[in-house]
Amino acid sequence: QVELVESGGGLVQAGGSLRLSCAASGFAFSNYAMRWVRRAPGKGLEWVSSINTSGGISYADSVKGRFTASRDNAKNTLYLQMNSLKPEDTAVYYCAKMNETPRGRGTQVTVSS
Fold first, then answer.
1. How many whole angstroms separate alpha carbon 29 and alpha carbon 23?
2. Which residue in 73, 38, 37, 67 sits closest to 55, CA to CA?
3. Using an 8 Å Cβ cutoff, are 92 and 39 in contact?
């Protein structure tokens, strides 16, 4: 059974940092490209970052230079280091396989001004 569990969210002031984690189980994690997406209050899903099986990474323009995605295949875990957070980064963050809708509960990130 595929399971993706996000953690690491919280309340932080603008300019602060958070590190999100996504623990994967039930599938061969290292064989899949993964992505981070987010849903801000009242808005649809927004793509944040993707990381392929070779470690190649891409970012949305809105987070480029501030967020860093990584993966540890030995731990079946995906990470998102978020620095210089802005109030507009407030959202529920999800991890998912590429081209799949998020299946986890997500983790809430709230950035106060």
1. 10
2. 73
3. yes
Burial class (CB in 10 A: 0-12, 13-18, 19+), 45: middle
First to last CA, the chain: 40
Res. 70 pLDDT band, cuts 50 70 90? very high
87: helix, coil or strand?
A: helix
Q: What is the largest CA-CA distance in the chain?
A: 40
Selection from 76, 36, 70 nearest residue 56 by Cα: 70
Between CA 53 and CA 61 the distance in angstroms is: 22
Q: Which token pair is 26?
A: 């039930």
Q: Tens digits of per-residue pLDDT, 41-61?
A: 999 999 999 999 998 999 999
